[in-house]
Amino acid sequence: MKNKVYVIGMGPGAADAMSVKADRTLQECDTIIGYTVYVNLLKETYPEKEYLTTPMTQEAKRCQMAFEEAEKGKKVAMVCSGDAGVYGMSGLMLEIGADYPEVEVEVIPGVTAALSGGAVLGAPLTHDFAVISLSDRLTPWDKIEKRLKLAAEADFSICLYNPSSKGRPDYLKRACDILLSVLPEDRICGTVENIGREGESRAIYTLKELRDTQVNMFTTVFIGNSMTKEIGGRMVTPRGYRIG
Questions:
Q1: pLDDT tens-digit profile of 213-223?
Q2: Chain centroid, CA 180 distance in Å
């Protein structure tokens, strides 16, 4: 019988926003491992578990830690915010898992910020859309710039992850300048901060207004397509269904 590690998408953070399978698996696990900020969201719900954490930039070490704990015969959960396969740890876990053939990896999906944040805003992603991270820690900025421009030219709705941090406070402004080279200034946009957690807030902007808006690493940004509109304070991208 192989030892096992579960890679679990915990959703936006609130216990009631997690899938039933994710919750059930966490209840059965002995050890929960993850980035410190995300693990702290779980401690109140699962107080009896053993917790192991690493800070940001130590993702590989975190994965190795999970496999080493599983080799001891423990049931181990590697947790990620949102979905483990969307800017999460599932890919790295499977890569590193090749060195631990006696440990099985199972990925349990969660609700990513594009979906949970989209629900808060209304319906910004009901047609084709692109998800782009503005973090250049692992992706060169010139590649991010190309993806932004081509997604805008293709008239996708766009969801931006990691729009700002202390080390890159102007990245959303830079992204908006790229988008404004293609899109009109009055394109409908929106932001959601602290999705599913205390302090959750949403706002609707034009693309011109968004350019000068202050955001942080807990903000998800939505850029509408040519059909997107504001209806009663909500951001709506029509699919094209006939009404009436």
A1: 999 989 999 99
A2: 24
- The amino acid at 200: E
CA dist 141 → 94, 146, 168, 169, 214 (Å): 26, 9, 12, 14, 20
Check pLDDT > 70 for residue 1.
Answer: no
The pLDDT tens digits of the residues spanning 132-183 come to 999 999 999 999 999 999 999 999 999 999 999 888 889 999 999 999 999 9
